[in-house]
Amino acid sequence: MSDSSADLASQLLEQHVKHEMAALKGAKLRKFLEREVSELLNHAESITLNRLSSVDQVMGVIQRVVVNMELDAGIPELAAEMATEVMNAPVQAQTTLGEVITREQATGFVEELLELRQQRERVISEIMAHPVYQELASNLVYTGLVNYLYEDNLITKSVPGVGSMMKFGKKMANRAVPGLDESFERRIKTWLSDSLPGLIARSEQFLNQALSDDEVRDSVMAAWVSLENRTIADLREGLGDVELQEFVVLGYDFWLQFRQTAYFEGCARAVVNHLFAKYGNQPIAELLGDIGVTREVIMAEVDAYAVPVMDVLREEGYVEALVRRRLSGFYHSAAARRILESEA
Fold this sequence. Notes:
Helices cover 83% and strands 0% of the residues. It is mainly α and 344 residues long. Helix 1 runs antiparallel to helix 20, helix 4 packs antiparallel against helix 17 and helix 10 (131-152) packs across helix 13.
């Protein structure tokens, strides 16, 4: 390129940069963004989701960003610190549970839970079948039976001295026949072992009848009424900062393991498959409308973030440098040289 052509190219570049910089600030910038948002939304009326992406592409993003991305060790520490700050914030002592979840919302949750009758009965059945519960029930029955025989029955209460005589007789019998206590206890426990399945079955039947919808509803709502005016700080009393941080770390460790499971991949794929089955052949505007993304919503975020961020980047010199990088290649290209030299 000759000196005169090069000088002209530099002048044109500078004028073009000034033009772009003037257009990328203030009212002109907002007008530009508003126009482009409108243009994109117009195209969204005709471009389908399948033209923009596919199930495999979206699953690839999930695999790379959600599953495979290495997360720095500082993330759980930062999360724990943030959780601590949240739980220690003054708002915890100033906000009641009822201000977070209204009584109407709590009632709605209860009503939905009451619809899960089959699940409730299954939980009761599994609790009753658990060895720990069976041992607890056996010990309670045994202790109650022994106490009744020696101390709490009607005869020992109504006839003075009978209780003492029974205890005295028990001691004398043990002296005369060593091990009688153990034999008695063994026989009772054998009886309990044989009777326990029936006791458990009757307990399960009783609970299923006792825990009617009305009983559950009344019990839960009574508990709610007693809690709704207590502050969040009151409800978390006893959960110290250290314990809270440990829970955050445990949750983070669980997430690292869970995201690698076939179950997570299967759930994610089911969601993505359904999304494309429902919206794949529909214009993007249909999906945006169903999730509430409108022109007004987009422009509100443009005003809140895009314009202020562009102001900062312009002040830092980034915008001008970007414009120069985009334009200088053309003004120093062979095509521009031929045009300028032909006009010389």
